[in-house]
Structure formats: structure tokens, C-alpha cells
């Protein structure tokens, strides 16, 4: 979705399902709670939590704030340890949030090209991407006047 909105001159349509549309910590308060439980910064891939949360943030930070001189992940760390507990680094999180589809939809309006079609499909039983989050993104598209089709289906994630 984000790439289609960013490069409508390359894509004629976008069809997405099971996506994460808004990276804001306001939408993901459980992420804040999980990071606060960190006792040390990961230094190896095996240090990343099994749920994938820290891994996701480390990967995103490497994409938006690369640092070739900072092994082993070669990016700015999205969290730090202060007073024995983890916290997000606001500057890095801001760069991550800026790359989500909700922000890209706002920039899409400045593009000289338009997609011929946008379709979102969401599984009503998706426990990973809650329905209210998807509906909030659909509202962003509607409020911005971006034509799209939204379909909810009785399935799980993707």
C-alpha cells in the first residue's frame, strides 16, 4: 500500500490485505509496554524477542536510519536503556512512523499521478491487525478523498 501510494507512476493499482497502516505508538500502546521490559539493548540477532517486536523495530530503524558504522544491525537503535528499563528513542521512532501508509496517503495527494484502483481487504477475525485499526486507515483515505474499495471478510490474518 505504502509503495503504491508513494509511486503511483509505477503502479496502476494496489490491493492489500493484512497490512499495518499506522506505526504510531498511540495505535500500538502494547509496544511501549514491551519495550519498557527490556533490560539491555540487543547486540545479536538471537537477542531479538521471539514475538518479533524488537526485531521489527530494529529492521525498520535500519531502513529509515541506517548507520554502516554501527554493527551488528547497521542502523540507529530504536530503543535505549534508561534507569534499568527500555524506552523508545523518539527521533528514530519518528522516522519509522513517517514511513507508514497513513502518512504516505497524505503525501499521495501531492503526486501528479493517481492509482487506477485501491482495494483493501481485511479479515474480521485478524488478531494481529485489529479491525478498528484498519477502519481508521480506511477513514484516512475517505477523509482525504482518495478513492478506494474496502472489503471485510470472515477470515483471519491475510
Characterization of the model:
The protein is α/β, with parallel strands linked by helices. The chain contains six helices and five strands, in the order H-E-H-H-E-E-H-H-E-H-E. It has a three-stranded parallel sheet, covered by helices on one side. A two-stranded antiparallel sheet has the order 2-3. The chain starts with a helix and ends in a 5-residue tail after the last strand.
Quickly list its features.
158 residues; 6 helices; alpha/beta; globular; 5 strands; two-stranded antiparallel sheet; three-stranded parallel sheet
Blueprint (SSEs and pairs):
Blueprint: H1 2-6, E1 13-17, H2 29-36, H3 53-64, E2 79-82, E3 85-88, H4 90-97, H5 101-108, E4 117-123, H6 131-144, E5 149-153
Parallel strand pairs: 1-4, 4-5
Antiparallel strand pairs: 2-3
Helix pairs in contact: 3-4, 5-6
Rough outline: globular
Number of strands: 5
**Residue ranges: pLDDT <50 for 5 or more in a row?**
none
Query: Major sheet: order of its strands?
Result: 1-4-5
Distance between the termini: 14 Å
Structure classification: alpha/beta
Q: Please outline the major beta sheet.
A: 3 strands, parallel
Our Rg estimate from Cα atoms comes to 17 Å
DSSP strand content: 15-25%
Helix content: 25-40%
What is the helix tally?
6
SSE sequence, one letter per element: HEHHEEHHEHE
Task: Compute the average pLDDT.
Answer: 90
Amino acid at each position: 500500500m505504502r509503495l503504491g501510494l508513494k509511486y503511483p507512476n509505477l503502479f496502476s493499482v494496489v490491493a492489500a490485505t493484512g497490512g499495518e497502516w499506522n506505526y504510531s505508538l498511540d495505535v500500538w500502546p502494547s509496544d511501549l509496554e514491551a519495550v519498557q521490559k527490556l533490560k539491555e539493548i540487543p547486540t545479536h540477532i538471537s537477542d531479538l524477542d521471539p514475538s518479533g517486536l524488537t526485531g521489527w523495530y530494529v529492521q525498520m530503524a535500519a531502513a529509515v536510519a541506517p548507520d554502516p558504522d554501527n554493527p551488528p544491525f547497521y542502523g540507529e537503535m530504536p530503543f535505549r536503556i534508561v534507569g534499568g528499563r527500555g524506552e523508545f528513542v523518539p527521533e528514530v521512532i519518528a522516522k519509522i512512523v513517517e514511513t507508514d501508509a497513513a502518512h504516505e496517503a497524505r503525501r499521495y495527494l501531492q503526486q501528479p499521478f493517481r492509482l487506477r484502483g485501491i482495494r483493501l481487504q481485511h479479515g474480521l477475525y485478524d488478531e494481529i491487525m485489529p479491525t478498528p485499526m484498519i477502519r481508521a486507515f480506511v477513514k484516512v483515505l475517505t477523509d482525504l478523498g482518495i478513492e478506494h474499495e474496502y472489503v471485510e471478510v470472515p477470515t483471519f490474518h491475510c
